[in-house]
Amino acid sequence: MDTVPSWLPTDLDLVSSDWSHPMLYPCDSLLRLPSELLLQIAEYLCRDSLYQLTLTCSCLCKIAEDCLYREIFIPKYGGWTDKRERISIFHLNRTLSESPRLGSIVKTLDIVIDSFHVEVPVTASGILPYARTISANTTVRIRVPFVAGSLLLSMPAVETLSIALRYGNRGYPPYNYVHDSFQELFGKEFDPEASNSILMNALGHVKSLNFEGLQFHWVLAKLPSLEHLTLNRSCRILPDQSPLEVSASIKSLTLPCFSSVLIRGSERYKTCAPFLQHLPFLQTVKIPIRDVPDNIDEEGLEGFEMVNEQRQGSFSVLLEGLKCAASTLKVIDLGLDDDQARYDFLSYALPGGPFTPFWSLKVLKAPYEALLGPEDPSGLLGHPPMEDVLPESLEVLEIHCPVLRILSWLYNFLWHRDRLPRLKRIVLHCRSDRGDSYVEFAYHSYPHPVFNGFRRAGISIELRYLNGDWQCDWDDYDVQMTKMLEWFQSLGDPYRGSVFAPRFGGDPDVSKWGHYVIW
Predict the structure, then answer these.
(1) Neighbours of 250 (CB within 10 A)
(2) Residue 512 has pLDDT above 50, yes or no
């Protein structure tokens, strides 16, 4: 669905309950189709056409309303919420209050809530009964959370909710900002430490929650139907007074963090482990780690920590917090998926130790340092064997920013294939700014015996690179040419050639194109 406001006003006086108009006679057979099929057909119509559909008959009006109100994405007009977005929240709330049936249709809502006010037009009699008209443009100022709270209460069937809480003046929010915001949303009687029937009634059917804010509280994760929880940015998890409460429904968690999550005793993440204790039935956890604060003017630099040469971190700190769900976790994703971020903190991060306690783990995505630690220039640092680091249940291993030495580590595993009987696939994600590049793995190290060895063992190895790292010269590379050059060399006549052909006018200076020369 597009982002055009879906709360279009409907003139119900124009909606006919029958097909009395002669121009509608040819469409009489349309109503004989099942309503589910009509709904699928209506989904292909644009918003304007759906609005016209509401003006035909009551049956098609309901079909059009299902399309219009099932997914609501309030338009975002810029990087920061402005008054147009705030007034959209008010208009939507007014539409749903006048037609409560529409609120029960909404299944998906994407909304941004800030601490500003919204000016809404009212009549003088709406403020003072029997008052004379003061002005045609009389307005009142209402806090956006107050309007948004009324809006959420009018949508009892929402299953996918994306909500962003933003502090209005872009300064660092007060410590109790989330508490105050939810008191405005759901009333002064709201208490995050108590059992809140208001919150459960408003969001009781939410299965997927995407939250963006500087602070997060456990109360939002207690929704009875919640299965997928995604935090869209690194935020402070506020302490709670319910350490024994758990959520049996949450199966997936996305928790962005700064590198300070790897520092034992970090002030920022001291509540992270207690929060994870609430989620012992997790099956998938994704923890992207990056040290580029979003909206740094909001975040504030006071007390900001990061892993560097003065402050060493360890992935074992993070894994200790996840051990509460060791028996249920199937996917652990610590991947470096942001192609714009730099991951310098990995040079000062120790490995996380064995992943064997996660005996149900099937997919592991992690940087090279999380498995083997920072690269040792001397090459004297011994690494534990692969079969001692990974659990027997593992099926897919994805390693980000590897170095060439990992090929030897993988090759040694072939002698102990029976220790990881379910392993089927290994993916090496190469970056030009960290670890060894894709060229080193795909060209310079080829043919490494690990590739043929894993192929015979029934394990596939994939090499991947960032789209921004791609070079046009790679299209000219041919594996068969390497074999041909080896055959020429076997004839005894010294041969010097290139696996790439000079391009752009046949410039003989092939070195400036980064070509690999075989001797």
Answers:
(1) 22
(2) no
Residue 256: inside a domain, yes or no? no
With contact defined as beta carbons under 8 Å apart, do 318 and 273 qualify?
Answer: no
Of 72-86, 221-235, 255-269, which range is least confident?
72-86
Q: What is the pLDDT of residues 81-90, one digit of tens each?
A: 466 677 788 8
Residues 383 and 272 in one domain: yes
Q: What are the counts of helices (DSSP H) followed by strands (DSSP E) for the chain?
A: 18, 20
pLDDT average, residue stretch 429-452: 85
Residue 461 lies in a domain: yes
Q: Is 346 part of any domain?
A: yes
Task: Output the six-digit token pair for 205.
Answer: 């059917």
- 6 belongs to a structural domain: no
89-125 burial, b if ≥16 CB within 10 A, otherwise e? bbebbbbbeebeebbebbbbbbbbbbbbbbebeeeee
What span, in angstroms and rounded, lies between the C-alpha atoms of 188 and 345?
43
Tokens standing for residue 292: 């580029």
Q: How many domains does the chain have?
A: 4
Domain that holds residue 491: 479-518
Q: Are residues 491 and 464 in the same domain?
A: no
Residue at which a domain ends, from 221, 250, 279? 250
Say what the pTM is: 0.79
